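Bumping with the actual sequence this time:
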Amino acid sequence: MLIYQCESEGSLKVAAITFAYKNAEIIHLLKERGQNLSDNCNCTQETLKEVDKRIDSLKEDKFEELAQPASAFVTFQTSFGFNTAMKYMKSTKNFFKRYSPNKNHQIFGVHPIVKKAPEPSNIIWESYSVSQRTARIRSLKTYLFMLFVYALVFFGFWKLYGYPTDFVRCFTVKIDCNEVYQVFTD
């Protein structure tokens, strides 16, 4: 598909477009259904029918939300195509490392956030539907927990640092060097 023609560099061609959807709920239900169908599970037909009903009701209730792409991964045939697209569409990053969309472009009435994607193998697809707010709250909880553990270890070592001197004070023996000299010189 030819999108843009530049006489000096060549053409900008898209090799592939892969869409990602917010479908974590249906994936979890399908996993549950698959586990129920496995040989290791002693599930009844009623259990399978109940999971199928939940899948059907989810499809009926949230079909529009499940069918609308949450993001698109665009692969270009050349680095020129990638660089050109990033130049014209890239979102800017502010002080808080949040991307601000380019207000000149809209897709389906939404200003897209365009940035370089990570490698597909580095994406946990099941967690892809987690919002950035939830992810930041989780990371903040992790950082606070780690800070607590580091503080606990630090104060533990600080407290243990004083024990050797307390131990020595309890068991000090006063030695009279003159007596030792007399015992060994006789």
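The tokens above came from a reply further down the thread. Confidence is low (pLDDT under 50) at residues 1-7.
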